[in-house]
Write a structure and sequence with these properties.
Layout lengths: L2 E6 L4 H15 L4 E7 L4 H11 L3 E4 L2 H10 L6 E4 H9 L6 E4 L7 H9 L3 E4 L3 H16 L4 E3 L2 H9 L8 E8 L9 H4 L4 H4 L9 H9 L1 H13 L7 E5 L5 E7 L4 E5 L5 H9 L31 H11 L3 H17 L8 H11 L8 H29 L5
Helix pairs in contact: 4-5, 5-6, 6-11, 6-14, 10-14, 11-13, 14-15, 14-16, 15-16
Amino acid sequence: MQKKISILGSTGSIGIQALEVVRNLKKNNYNIEIKGLAAGKNIDLLEKQVLEFKPEAVSVMDEELADILNKRLKSTGTDVFYGIEGLIKVATLENTDLVLNSVVGVVGLLPTLEAIRKGKNIALANKETLVAAGKIVMEEAQKHNVSIIPVDSEHSAIFQCLVGNDKKSISKLLLTASGGPFRGKKTEQLEMVKPEDALKHPNWKMGNKITIDSATLMNKGLEVIEARWLFDVSPEKIEVLIHPQSIIHSMVEYVDGSIIAQLGMPDMRIPIQYAITYPNRQYSRFNKMDFKIHRELTFEEPDYVNFPCLRIAFEALKESGTMPTVMNAANEVAVNLFLNNKIRFTQIPVIISNVMDKHIVNNNPTIDDIIEVDEWARIEAMKVYNNIADTVSKNSVVIL
């Protein structure tokens, strides 16, 4: 049987590694076909991917870039689309078995929903989809008998630890976190952190946004919310542990006291391959774990004081409804501001908290409500930033 997949975010870190997985699977005679690819603005890389994998359709976010790409690909027979409609087109291509969603941000929400409604199984690396609209997405997946297979290493680990076990027997989900590049530092040490410092993750190679989220611990907060919906557990049953070695990717504790952990090298290609080949496993040439080398596995409590984003995420989950949507949108704005040297690293949680404080929660939102609240939060986040900038200007204080 041939597996046919579409990849959203094919020129990003996860997308590039996913295509490497596909190459390796083909070398091992695994029957796989790329039906569609979607990217942002990197049309040069996307063009190379099209020439290699010959997808039926591709999409980019910009109409002008789509026109350029269309001319370049004229002889290939590949259809070129753009914008959110293009993402949805690639996500819902006929005969696609699996959609790997690895785009960054809430832009991945609508394509995921439309793919689910078309009966496509989802390999989910876009955590914002469940953070913003977890209840809606999981209800749609159940309604259309669709599997959502997590790609994030932590959620893939839990997914694997649950195989063969009754979810009713779960006592606790233990999400591990590396602690990021600033583990152990205090707030005063983080004041002058530059984007290039925050982008130096000790263990993982990831895109810019997720790397900054890892540095603030917001990434782990997003994963807590995602885990709540993926595995249908109450927030009280989710715990975060700092595990600097990133060897144990997460664990499940059961009511009898047994703990099952999933271990492996910090290599995203491993959970990507598992999501693609699920429910089977295939041979890979990726690095294997050697316990003679990796002898020490340590754990710490998260630092909620100096890294408040994790606490903020737990608070958003407790509020539930539209609050996680607001938190996620404000975080996306704040991270972008930091990456562009507009705010300090320590002002990321300040902006998020300010926007959340202004929000009145809708406990039963529709998808239209989610989209509206997301837009509101982005506008409010920019207002908070402008207030910060005005204050700095009046007091003649330099932010960075």
